[in-house]
Amino acid sequence: xxxxxxxxxxxxxxxxxxxxxxxxxxxxxxxxxxxxxxxxxxxxxxxxxxxxxxxxxxxxxxxxxxxxxxxxxxxxxxxxxxxxxxxxxxxxxxxxxxxxxxxxxxxxxxxxxxxxxxxxxxxxxxxxxxxxxx
Length: 134
Prior knowledge:
With 134 residues, the chain is mostly helical. It is built from four helices and no strands. It has two domains: 7-90; 91-129.
């Protein structure tokens, strides 16, 4: 029995080989598409987590800004009071204000001359000022 290879057999074999190669290529492409889809889902998941983390950081930044503004307001009041105390430190002492009150200086003059607040000047005048006769 002799086997003769005809062009039809060669074409059939070539067709089978090409069909098998096409099938292998299709399976390989399918695997690549699945891997790409998995990577895409992982990226989407990471993006969602990143978005959530970014929102949390923004909220923390807003809280920090509000706290900073509150601290700045409080510091401003403290700085103003320190400035008043520094001005008073350069002015004559309470002792001199008391002496002036004993000589009859009124509240406004004590406040102006010695850098006292009106409340402080009023207290010095009441405690050390001349007694008014009835």
